[in-house]
Amino acid sequence: MTEFRSKSLIALGGNLPSAAGAPQSTLVSAIAELSRRGLYVQLLSRFFHTPCFPAGAGPDYVNAVIQLSTDISSADLLAILHDVEAQFARVREQRWGMRTLDLDLIAREDQVSPDLATYRHWQALPLAAQTRRAPEQLILPHPRLQDRGFVLVPLCDIAPDWQHPVLGLSAREMLAALPKAAVAEVQPL
């Protein structure tokens, strides 16, 4: 099923080299690949250096956010993102593990998927459970978006007024609610 042309926010990250080079080069190459696949990249944040999470779990990350415009379904978009990750040797062995490339669909317009109850369940999941469990379906907006400086800092670079469809807060307001230390560790390259 084809949806109307919509704006999608994608968080990008990586902390291991790929065949394209260091993480920053991998992100640049992945963005180019998304464009080659017919996804229109409307906005691109600056690239940011971010400490690895959890602390000590590996090399530090390079993160960014892009805004895409597409008329394909969310499921098809997610499939493309996973395919591009695999093209850059992303291996999904460990939740929150090191990776060459991470492409997360964090929001699509004001869509809440699959439904509000499922979204709230995953949003309220305790941290210990988050490290062991991953949803089997796409949850939008990303249930941890409001907690992650490495997403919110670059998101505010391109869409500070984007409104979270469940929380009713702008990206700028969510960023301001984070501890200052968590924001300060996300540094532009």
UniProtKB/TrEMBL annotation:
Its EC number is 2.7.6.3. PANTHER family: 2-AMINO-4-HYDROXY-6-HYDROXYMETHYLDIHYDROPTERIDINE PYROPHOSPHOKINASE. Transmembrane segments: none annotated. It comes from the Bacteria. Catalyzes the transfer of pyrophosphate from adenosine triphosphate (ATP) to 6-hydroxymethyl-7,8-dihydropterin, an enzymatic step in folate biosynthesis pathway. It comes from Parasedimentitalea psychrophila. Keywords: ATP-binding, Folate biosynthesis, Kinase, Nucleotide-binding, Transferase. GO terms for biological process: folic acid biosynthetic process. GO terms for molecular function: 2-amino-4-hydroxy-6-hydroxymethyldihydropteridine diphosphokinase activity; ATP binding; kinase activity. This is 2-amino-4-hydroxy-6-hydroxymethyldihydropteridine pyrophosphokinase. InterPro entries: Hppk, Hppk_sf. The keyword Cell division does not apply. The lineage of its organism: Bacteria, Pseudomonadati, Pseudomonadota, Alphaproteobacteria, Rhodobacterales. Pathway: Cofactor biosynthesis; tetrahydrofolate biosynthesis; 2-amino-4-hydroxy-6-hydroxymethyl-7,8-dihydropteridine diphosphate from 7,8-dihydroneopterin triphosphate: step 4/4. Belongs to the HPPK family. It holds the Pfam family HPPK. Residues 10-160 form the 7,8-dihydro-6-hydroxymethylpterin-pyrophosphokinase domain. Signal peptide: none annotated.
